[in-house]
Amino acid sequence: MAAEPAPDILDAFEAAKGFMPVKEGLALYAAAAEAAALGLPLLEVGTYCGRSTILLADAARAAGVSVITVDHHRGSEEQQPGWDYHDPDTVDPSIGRMDTLPTFRRTLHRAGLEDHVIAVVGRSPQVAALWNTPLALVFIDGGHTDEHAGADYEGWAPHVAEGGLLVIHDVFPDPVDEWTGQAPYRIYLRALASGAFTEISATDSLRVLRRTGAVTPGRG
Ligand code: SAH
Ligand code: MG
Predict the structure, then answer these.
(1) pLDDT at 217
(2) What is the pLDDT of residues 193-219, one digit of tens each?
(3) What 3-state class would DSSP assign to 178?
(4) What is the 3-state secondary structure (H, E, C) of 105-142?
(5) Which of 120, 128, 209, 210 is the most buried (most CB within 10 A)?
(6) CA-CA distance, 31 to 15, in Å (whole number)?
(7) DSSP characters for 80-97?
(8) CB-side exposure of 172: number of CA atoms within 13 Å?
């Protein structure tokens, strides 16, 4: 049976601000629990207010590994004022820009998970360029333009350890279901076409792929 979060963790997840339905969250948790057994850290791109981070952190805690979560905390395009996914509570009134870092910190603190998470505040490609540690799991849930999703894939997929998992959120193969575009779907296709990843599960828009081959720079 797939690993499941404890009831208090699930409550914290459901109470947290964010963009992950419970069903996909449970699939993410199961993937994280399985991957964490490799004894390597888990990495998330797209922290927002920490909703999905809670699940990764609980799975990491159980296995004695860390989660690294990367976000500039200024929000994606569709989360800016005037757009569909904007939440006025995420704006820092003193600078008039989004800042999801304070909410994220409160969320993790309340869930009792701060000790298991390293938050990196910055742009995903800049962080990826400095990265040199194999990862048990990479969860891509950042920007939804081709520029951002493509850079997340190129920057982080090579760091997934052999046997580790690449998890991609907001994969919509049918344009009818599209809400912020199909860039995540396109990186999912690239990962499969690269020959380095094999799909192991699909839960609504959440896809879990296992690294089964070498990631060749420039391919896919
Ligand atoms: N995982 C979250 C949702 C993430 S929303 C949840 O479960 O609720 C997407 C996040 O990606 C936003 O917070 C945005 O600031 C961040 N983001 C978008 N493009 C980014 C980039 N290039 N580098 C770092 N963070 C980015
Ligand atoms: Mg998402």
Answers:
(1) 57
(2) 999 999 999 999 999 999 998 876 554
(3) coil
(4) HHHHHHCCCHHHEEEEECCHHHHHHHCCCCEEEEEECC
(5) 209
(6) 22
(7) STTSTT--GGGEETTTTE
(8) 12
Active site residue 144: yes
Indicate the burial class of 151 (C-beta count within 10 angstroms; 0-12, 13-18, 19 or more).
buried
Q: Which atom of ligand 1 is nearest to the CA of 169?
A: 1
The residue to which tokens 């309340």 are assigned: 110
Cα 210 to the center of its chain, rounded Å: 15
Instruction: Give the architecture (CATH level 2) of 7-211.
Output: 3-Layer(aba) Sandwich (3.40)
pLDDT band at 123 (very low <50, low <70, confident <90, very high): very high
Strand, coil or helix: 166: strand
Cross-strand pairs, 178: none
Give 142 Cα–ligand 2 centroid separation in angstroms: 7
Substitution candidate for ligand 1 out of 17, 20, 42, 45 with most atoms within 8 A of CB? 45
- 128-160, pLDDT tens digit by residue? 999 999 999 999 999 999 999 999 999 999 999
- Measured in Å, residue 133 CA sits from the centre of ligand 2 at 24
CA distance 4 to 10: 9
Query: Letter for the amino acid at 177?
Result: D
